[in-house]
Design brief:
The longest helix is centred in the middle third of the chain and has 13 residues, at about 175-185. This protein has two domains: about 1-260, Metal-dependent hydrolases (TIM Barrel), CATH 3.20.20; about 270-350, Immunoglobulin-like, CATH 2.60.40. The protein is an alpha+beta fold and about 350 residues long. It has helices at about 25-35, 50-55, 95-105, 145-150, 160-165, 175-185, 215-220, 240-250, and strands at about 1-5, 5-15, 40-45, 60, 65-70, 80-85, 110, 140-145, 190-195, 200-205, 210, 225-230, 255-260, 270-275, 280, 285, 290-305, 310-325, 330-335, 340-345, 345-350. The protein starts with a strand and ends with a strand. The structure holds zinc ion (2 copies). One zinc ion binds next to loops.
Length: about 350
């Protein structure tokens, strides 16, 4: 946790599988790994089951808050959807548009997982893209998925290297997904999150020997989603209240995504400020000629301002101020040593 101005920032890992589906470790075990790595919350999404939630596994595990949702897919195993804050399971036999509706009907919220997954070189591993974009009730999309990115570049020549160094394949979110995300935000607020899709898989290489790739410990040092809260999380206290705070921040897009491998991004801040108003990431502010965006990264970074999906300005430095001269949706991409490090959600200027 880190406080700057009126916001507390907490870093979390979203989209994790446990032994309740195809993960290799149980939830308390995974939570104890997270406790060593300065992670504030973990959101589990086992395939088509809320059983760990029914079994009472949500709560505080020392300093880590565990929330449990699920990852729903359709009968053809496409259209993976991360559903949170629901108390009933949703049938995966429904068509995707129906389960998207059902999740919001149950008072929950949902994120489209790995929306644009593509693989060209290894046909034996199928892809799981999102195909029903005309569905309007989803709350967000996973703009960066560690597992998807890893699988995408995988081929028979590099697979040994990639098995040994899974973190090296984390480079950048897909341009196609970012474009879609910006477009969606021109219509309504759609949150972007980062997912690791952690399984702790055991793979057999050439049928000869087994290696565990995607160790939770390694993956937990890659893509993180940071939420900004107005009130501190009370560690070890009422976990339901804590989860409410985290879920509300995610739903409101009061969050940003980072690649932890390049450094801890807990200090990142971005506010839009005018003579009369001030909002942070996920907020909405009225246009005013004095309106500017203040960005602070604490390191010498390249900071790119994106307006309605187009890069309109860039600076180098640890503190930047951009004048916002038009209405629309603004977000920031931060690069450290030429590598993508932080992606903010949008601020809407109306
Ligand atoms: Zn999936
Ligand atoms: Zn998954």
């Amino acid at each position: 946790m880190n406080k700057i101005k009126n916001y507390y920032s907490y870093s979390g890992v979203i989209h994790i599988h446990s032994t309740y589906s195809d993960g290799s470790r149980d939830i308390p075990d995974i939570a104890s790994i997270a406790n060593e790595l300065d992670i504030d919350f973990l959101l589990f999404t086992d395939h088509n089951t809320l059983q760990p939630k029914f079994n009472g596994l949500q709560g505080w595990y020392d300093k880590v808050l565990v929330g449990i949702g699920c990852e729903i897919n359709d009968i053809s195993d496409q259209n993976h959807y991360l559903a949170f804050d629901i108390d009933k399971e949703v049938s995966w036999k429904l068509p995707p548009k129906e389960y998207v509706k059902k999740v919001s009907g149950l008072g929950g919220f949902g994120i489209i997982a790995h929306p644009d997954e593509k693989r060209t070189s290894m046909p034996e591993y199928p892809t799981y893209p999102w195909t029903v974009w005309d569905s309007k009730e989803f709350n967000g999309i996973e703009i960066w998925n560690q597992m998807s990115e890893w699988m995408e570049g995988l081929n028979h020549l590099n697979k040994f290297y990639r098995f040994i160094h899974p973190r090296k394949s984390v480079t950048a979110p897909k341009q196609e997904t970012l474009r879609k995300w910006d477009e969606l935000n021109l219509e309504r607020k759609v949150v972007g999150i980062g997912g690791v899709d952690a399984h702790g898989h055991i793979y057999k290489l050439w049928g000869l020997f087994k290696v565990i790739i995607f160790r939770y410990k390694v993956l937990f040092k890659t893509i993180r989603t940071h939420v900004l809260l107005t009130e501190e999380l009370k560690k070890g206290k009422d976990y339901e209240k804590g989860l409410r705070q985290v879920y509300d921040a995610l739903k409101n897009a009061q969050c940003y995504i980072s690649n932890f491998m390049l450094g801890d991004a807990d200090n990142f801040r971005m506010i839009a400020i005018s003579e009369n108003e001030e909002v942070t990431i996920g907020g909405m502010i009225r246009f005013h000629k004095s309106l500017r965006l203040q960005v602070s990264t604490m390191l010498k970074t390249k900071n790119i301002l994106i307006h309605n999906g187009i890069a309109v300005n860039e600076t180098i430095g640890d503190k930047t101020e951009f004048l916002l001269q038009k209405r629309g949706v603004y977000r920031i991409e931060v690069y450290l040593d030429k590598r993508p490090w932080i992606f903010s959600n949008h601020i809407h200027v109306v």
